[in-house]
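User: ok so my PI wants both of these folded by tonight, can you help

Assistant: No problem, let's get them done. Here's the first:
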Amino acid sequence: MGVQGTNPRFDFRADVPDCADLGDVHLIAIGGAGMSAVARLLLERGVRVSGSDARDSAVLEALRAEGARVHVGHDPAHLDGVDTVVISSAIRETNVELAAARERGLRVLHRSQGLASTMAGQRRVAVAGANGKTTTSSMLTVALADAGQRPSFALGGELTTEGTNARIGEGDVFVAEADESDGSFLVYRPHVAIVTNVQPDHLDFYGDFATVEAAYAEFAGTIEAGGVLVACADDPGSARLAERAAADGVRVVTYGLTEGAKGVTARLVDLELDGYRAAATLLDADGVARRLEIAVPGRRYNLLNALAAHLAATVGLGVDPEASLAGLASFGGTRRRFEAKGSVGGVAVIDDYAHNPGKVEAVVRTAKEVAGEGRLTVIFQPHLYSRTRDFAAQFAAGLAPADRIVLLDIYGAREDPVDGVTSELIAEPLRASGSDVLVLDKESAVARAVEGTQSGDLVLTVGAGDVTALGALVLDALRERGTARGEGAPA
């Protein structure tokens, strides 16, 4: 890899060509969330797009319908007539299409560079942070749209109200989720940057937390002259970043819950949770009070995400505060972010993409609040061997509030198995603390989730891998149980 925290295959500080100059573009692994977003934006910009993926999917079918030439399987022949190839950091140099592109001397761009090529002439908002990026960028997109800004956007999840994760809007604002995992968030050079938190993650790339913090400081340094950094004062890493950026001459606005925190621009008080809705009183720097409401749960985390979006819209982009708040109140959520999959016999099933300790802690805490007196069962699929090895104890702490915990085998994604690294690393401290935890295969996990559940309980599937498919299976199993009991057609 070379120096920790640097990507030897790409220079993320270099200028990015305009998408009109890319020629025909081919995306390897086009079906991924980030790659499909880039493909959609290029198509909307009038670029001829092709792509390949290891297996067919609903995303590939949708991209075909939108005008992309999509292949199942990888083959150098797919590059015939192609001028530019776009990849993510997960694509290895041994991939036959990437190897052929290198041999032919084709331009090879990182996914973030492909995305940045579609942003020319727009005010860019880049949303970064270990946790909350997708929700915050989605909230901001909805708030801007409701205020008449008609933004372009590229998100890590599909907006439920839009049915897509990316679109070119008619306005002059582009909202992008900025991925810090491989250093590629340095590409965007935003007018407004949001940092929800700075925490130790992706240590397989960065090596240590000090290097993570240095990368975020460099990200803040890419904000264009006259731009704004919106940073969370409650998170120690983000607060340190805000102080450092302000010292470097960047305009900084901060937000949080902590009363009397130094230099906080806006804070929330009187937090409320009512089922799947949350609200709070927003106090700005002048003490003006407004009501902030969101139609998604998360008394702490999602309200803070909404406040970050509000500050970016109002302070960063000049949107009227009341219009921003009205847009946030209409936010309907994002796929795989506390997404309700259904309810059978009063048992709710929720799915969430959380895959690092902070995200897992947040979603489990939110689920406990929503469940109230009901029992919470969590099915968690760890993501990456390196992350499981580095943060097993933190994952255990985040899962511990659940009444029952089921761990699946690790979803390796881009990584090869590591000797001695299994889900048992998370299970062991949970057992030691008295938690009800089992490590099971998927079929057994579904059976365990259904076992003994009753009205008012909540089942939560969590992880960045294929655990998302289990929500539908849990609902099916609940229906079958209801039929066997003679309960008729459950709701």
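One down. Here's the second:
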Amino acid sequence: MPTHPIDSRLSPSNRSVERALLILRAFRPGVGRLGNMELAERTGLARSTVSRLTQTLVESGFLDYDVASGSYRLGAPVLSLAHALRLDSDVLNFALPVMRETAEDHRINVGLAVADQADMVYLESVRRNRRELFRHVASGSRVPVELTSLGRAYLSTLSAGRRSVLEPVLRERHPDDWRKVSAGIEQSLAEIRSDGFCSVSWQAGITSIAAPLSLGHLPPYVFNISYASDDFGRREARSSLAPLLLGLVQRVREAFALDAI
């Protein structure tokens, strides 16, 4: 199903653009080749609509078609757009050296992400695990908003009204355990209100703490520090890692405040 309904108030041409973007969004790290049937399932669009749009996207170069497998993959212009985004991100360009310094000095993993609908997308992740065990997280990797510290920190930047708009999409992912997931979100929001960050262990053996950065004129950014749960106890993480995370956020916030003067 699509991650959000297509607005019926849009003009036919705008609906076509919206549907084409749904098709492009269906591709992600680990899902590099998709056929028309798979695209229809992932987007909720009719196969006839998918077939028409994929043909247009191939003609424009945004998709490549593999005859042997009958599947599509993203074309080179998408990579060019992603590279342009990274090069033009003032927040990433300022934060990356600080992230590397923090990761190297303390042998931890430091990430920066932004939201795309119901997912968080990594702009960068610097991996420096104490045990030299690397869980590779590439730029562009996506994680769910509702289950991760990154996503919950992002939710803390939204008004109650905007969270309520997103909730049906999140609820649809968890038909059997939404009450538990919702309780976890509320707990994380309370942590951020009291401490400025939240802590979540959504993958076995890994804990992540995250804090949001709101700069007013830009969409919310979220920084996180992740670590093997056995390497840091809860108290140690709170006393040593949380100040690093909050200090990183503050350094970026102050840098952009100075630029605005």
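The chain has a mean pLDDT of 88. The chain has nine helices and eight strands. Good luck tonight!
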